[in-house]
Amino acid sequence: MFVGGIAIKRKPRGDMELLGGNQVISISEESGLDGDYRGKRGKTGWRQVTIVSVPQWEKACRGLDILRPWFCRRANLCVTDYSFSPEDQGRTLAIAGRVLLQITGELDPCERMDEIVYGLKEALMSDWRGGVTCRCSAGAKLSLGIKSRLWLANNHSRSHTGVTSGGMGGEKGRLNRAMCVQHCRY
Fold first, then answer.
1. Rounded Cα gap, residues 131 and 54, in angstroms
2. What is the DSSP letter of 86?
3. What confidence tens digit (pLDDT) does each residue in 28-80 have?
4. Centroid of chain to Cα 7
5. Residue from 179, 176, 172 nearest 58 by CA
6. How far apart are CA 83 and CA 127, in angstroms?
7. H or E stretch at 183
8. Alpha-carbon distance 181 to 186, whole Å?
9. How far apart are CA 143 and CA 158, in angstroms?
10. Which domain holds residue 83?
11. Per-residue pLDDT tens digits for 76-125
């Protein structure tokens, strides 16, 4: 499993800021991803970090005959080669052996998804396609392009090792800032 991208939003309804190749971001128990408005432990501690699965995102988009980058989902991280399910709730993702994220539940899609393309909210409703919410239980600095181990603790059969990359992978994943603004600003 690979971490395919990192993004933050600084305020409600704000644009997603996609992390570039050499950028480093801190993630902590107190504030989630540095600069992301949802990271504080207070009211939203159960959803400090949100993660979307690229295969599940692409399946929802294919169902609507659209192609949109993962960060249009407005999640903080995307992972490849894995699909989330109800069995993952309560499990822990370990990224690069340093960052521990406990999966607290399903990331329910909101009406913002229909602002991208009508019907996207419904397409994300089934099979945890909208992603997962997480609470940070151990933090560190993260960047793209470093070796990472990402696995689901308490579930040895679904362990994976990988190297992070800057997009969804392949030519389709090579997105630039202009594409982000064009496809995801509302």
1. 9
2. G
3. 998 899 999 887 765 556 889 999 999 999 999 999 999 999 999 999 999 88
4. 8
5. 172
6. 9
7. helix 177-184
8. 9
9. 24
10. 2-184
11. 999 888 899 999 999 988 887 788 899 999 999 999 899 989 999 999 99
Q: What is the DSSP letter of 179?
A: H
Handedness of CA 7, 180, 20, 145 (dihedral sign): positive
Q: For 11-47, give the DSSP string.
A: STTPPPEE--TT-EEEEETTTEETT-TT--STTTGGG
Supply the CATH number for residue 178's domain: 2.40.33.20
d(CA 183, CA 50): 20
Distance CA 128, CA 168 (A): 19
Q: Measuring CA to CA, which residue among 20, 44, 19, 14 is closest to residue 31?
A: 44
Q: Which two tokens stand for residue 143?
A: 């960047």
Q: How far apart are the first and last CA of the chain?
A: 31
**Could you give phi then psi for residue 123, rounded to 5 degrees?**
-65, -25
